[in-house]
Amino acid sequence: MKKNVLFFIVILLSVSCIGCDAQKPNIPLESYVKVDGSTVTIPLSEMLAAAITGESLETVRPHILHNKTHNAYVNLIDGKADLIFVTSPSEEELAYAKEQDVSLVITPIVSEAFVFLTHTDNPVDNLSFEELQKIYTGEITNWSEVGGPNLKIAAYQRPVNSGSQTGFLDLVMQDKTPATPPMEHIHAGMGDLIDAVASYENQPDAIGYSYYYFVVDMWGNTSVKLLKIDTVYPDKKTIASGDYPITTSYYAVYRENTPKSSPIYEIVDWLLTEEGQDLMEAAGYVQLD
Questions:
Q1: 23-58 per-residue burial string, b: 16 or more CB within 10 A, e: under 16
Q2: Quick one: 232 and 144 in the same domain?
Q3: N or C: which end of the chain has fewer CB within 10 A?
Q4: What percentage of residues in the chain have a pLDDT greater than 90?
């Protein structure tokens, strides 16, 4: 738990510009900072670059290369990226930063929710937070134990250090250890996991997880449904209000020793202005409260 305490102190210290009057930077595309990030923040990164450079999305898209969450953190720490848009760091990523004597500034830029999904044919539409934990620790193994059919639960996970696995461990499991799933229940890509939940032979037995934006705005598989958690359905309204119980953020992260002359500070400050937040909403994300 020590990591979480230190992590959120850094975040709280780095959000003081919300509502500030920072002006939108004007940076030529050829001088734009080296960015990286999670899969789920690619649209965010592309729209931001287009707004700041004054170029079209089609023009900036080849310049926005996201290498997924873990690689983005490693690239930032190693100096191969200057600014990353990501989910929260894992224990291993924080340990690597410490090993390399690199301090990270981590700033929330949009709100997000961590969501659970099952097949649309599964009659279960609500789980309690405690039931989620018990499913993933192996204490609950059958859908009949949570009001569903007599089917063994296939609980899918992501690999360690993927953005959604870090979110799963920090936001959901917390101090509990998930059961080790069979290899066929671990999927490297977020879309692969969603498609695995959507695909079944004779029985809708699977459960998986991801981030709201990825499921709804990026992947859009109509054979899965999002589950209510503690009777609250995840949507932009319940995420923004905080009524949905598993909320988080996407973050802009840069090295603390970034030169003060770097445009990174202007970019991050502008993202937190009303204009910057409106841009993020136009890209489909949920504004910070």
A1: ebbebeeeebbebbbbbbbbbbbbbbbbbbbebeee
A2: yes
A3: N
A4: 77
Is pLDDT above 50 for 5?
Answer: no
Please report how many Cα atoms fall inside a 13 Å half-sphere around the Cα of residue 33, on the Cβ side: 29
CATH of the domain at 66: 3.40.190.10
Backbone angles phi, psi at 64, to 5 degrees: -105, 100
pLDDT digits (tens, 9 = 90+) for 9-35: 454 445 555 556 789 999 999 999 999
**Does residue 136 lie in a domain region?**
yes
Residues 181 and 230 in one domain: yes
What tens digit of pLDDT does each residue of 62-89 get?
999 999 999 999 999 999 999 999 999 9
The reply to whether 130 falls in a domain is yes
Say whether 252 sits in a helix, a strand or coil.
Answer: strand
Residue with tokens 């990286």: 36
Residue closest to 253 by CA, chosen among 55, 79, 88, 51? 88
